[in-house]
Design a protein that fits this description.
single chain; 16 strands; 6-stranded mixed β-sheet; disordered N terminus; globular
Length: 464
């Protein structure tokens, strides 16, 4: 099996894993798949299997060869410590990087001090490192290129593992309309929390889930807003939600923005994976959100749509919506102009048992999806909303290839490491120019984190 990158020359490089297509051997139409956030194209007749980890595939291994040349050209070399303290936090600057003087400095002659002399304090990439720089002794040899790359890979792997570990720390807030029509959904949240945690633990025993609750009503209702901060005391969560009563409302629209503001400003969002699951049957006040009878047609409250959406994105909180009626459609479409496509879950059930089942399955789905997206964050893609792309229409009809445009690109392939130890070694890259391929405009199927398109490789078999 090979790993390769196929790209349109006008687009960023994206990576895939490739295996021969069994459908091709059977004479069927070839196909390939791509993640939702992937804009590159893969040729057929191949099946491109994108990793379900949904991590960005611009893997550091693909840059190892370039790293060798870069390091060799620099004055000196970079030595990266693989100690646990230097790789424990991917978000910190503590990478344990320090500069080693060039070979010319490996002598017993003392180094002069001056404005260009690099001391340990000025060359360390980790501001938190307490280990002073120790010049090498006379006669010491500088590290080899291979050892530098291996050390770099070990540090990169450690950071990646830490990102995945951090993503297993989950904050999930249940934001509910608590007016008179929502009694069933309040009761369902109370009864579902235990099953939600149990189901998540079955999926991943290492998950740590912190649950919060925010309820909102409307102007004049007392209390208008209620909240419970994040906790792992699920019995306390159940009792708090169970103490809420569905009352108030009256004119249809509710103080949705007041509830969103409380969830964003009053709760302590402190873990890597952050989820806001919103259930409501009516929109916020204002003619821009509905044509329903409204006591405040000009809007209500000091909070604005733009500021709330900016806060959601700024805090890296993934927003999901449980749709109960069509009354919220216009509000959701406006939210989507800021956040991109918002996953909506059908909560039109009225039976309590059915609502509980739906809430459990939805909660598990959004937590697993959010963990994957959070673990995909990189220094280049710091927002989880970078992974929410356009929605596609599923089309199962085989395209008429004569009407599909041709794309040109370059394919880069790598031999996958045969062992864990081999991961540390540089990967040998092989590039093939002049790749020609076609791809259907719409996917013919979709999964939890990928879309599948028909494809035709016009260069096959000449490039393999």
């Amino acid at each position: 099996m090979q790993r390769f990158t196929a790209l349109d020359t006008s687009r960023p490089i994206q990576s895939y894993r490739v295996a021969p297509s069994p459908s091709t051997a059977a004479g069927l139409a070839p196909s390939y798949s791509t993640r939702r956030d992937v804009s590159g194209y893969a040729p057929a007749p191949l099946v491109v299997d994108v990793s379900t980890s949904m991590r960005r595939m611009d893997d550091p291994r693909e840059r190892d060869r370039a790293a060798i040349d870069r390091l060799a050209a620099e004055v000196g070399a970079v030595s990266i410590s693989s100690s646990s303290s230097s790789a424990s936090s991917p978000s910190s600057s503590g990478t344990g990087v320090r500069m080693i003087p060039p070979p010319s400095s490996y002598s017993s002659r003392p180094q002069p001090a001056g404005p260009h002399h690099h001391s340990s304090s000025s060359t360390s990439a980790s501001s938190s490192s307490s280990t002073p720089f120790t010049p090498p002794r006379s006669g010491d040899r500088p590290p080899s290129r291979a050892s530098i790359v291996i050390s770099e890979r070990e540090a990169q792997i450690a950071r990646s593992l830490q990102v995945i570990k951090d993503a297993q720390m989950v904050d999930i807030c249940f934001l509910l309309d608590c007016t008179g029509s929502m009694e069933t959904y309040i009761d369902a949240t109370k009864h579902a929390i235990g099953r939600i945690i149990e189901s998540l633990k079955q999926h991943n025993a290492h998950l740590q889930v912190f649950a919060a609750f925010v309820g909102y009503r409307d102007h004049g209702d007392v209390p208008q807003h209620v909240s419970l901060d994040f906790t792992q005391d699920y019995e306390h969560f159940r009792q708090f939600v169970g103490s809420q009563r569905a009352f108030g409302g009256g004119d249809g629209p509710e103080d949705v923005f007041g509830g969103l503001h409380m969830a964003l400003s009053q709760l302590r969002w402190s873990h890597a994976t952050r989820i806001l699951l919103h259930l409501g049957d009516y929109p916020h006040h204002g003619r821009e959100y509905s044509s329903l009878p409204d006591d405040f047609p000009g809007g209500y409250g000091p909070h604005t749509e733009q500021k709330l959406m900016q806060d959601i994105m700024g805090k890296n909180i993934l927003y999901f919506f449980g749709k109960i009626t069509h009354n919220t459609d216009l509000m959701m479409s406006r939210f989507a102009t800021h956040l991109g496509p918002i996953p909506e879950y059908d909560f039109k059930q009225t039976d309590l048992a059915a609502v509980i089942d739906k809430l459990v399955s939805t909660s598990v789905a959004v937590v697993m999806e959010s963990m994957v997206m959070t673990s995909s964050l990189t220094p280049e893609a710091k927002s989880v909303y970078a992974f929410r792309k356009k929605e596609y229409k599923i089309c199962k009809v085989l395209p008429v290839w004569h009407d599909v445009s041709v794309h040109h690109g370059t394919m880069t392939s790598f031999n996958l490491p045969a062992s864990i130890e081999a991961v540390k070694a540089p990967l040998e890259a092989r590039k093939t120019e002049g790749l020609m391929f076609k791809r259907s405009y719409e996917p013919f199927d979709e999964g939890a984190d990928r879309l599948v398109f028909y494809g035709s490789n016009l260069s096959y078999p000449f490039i393999f």
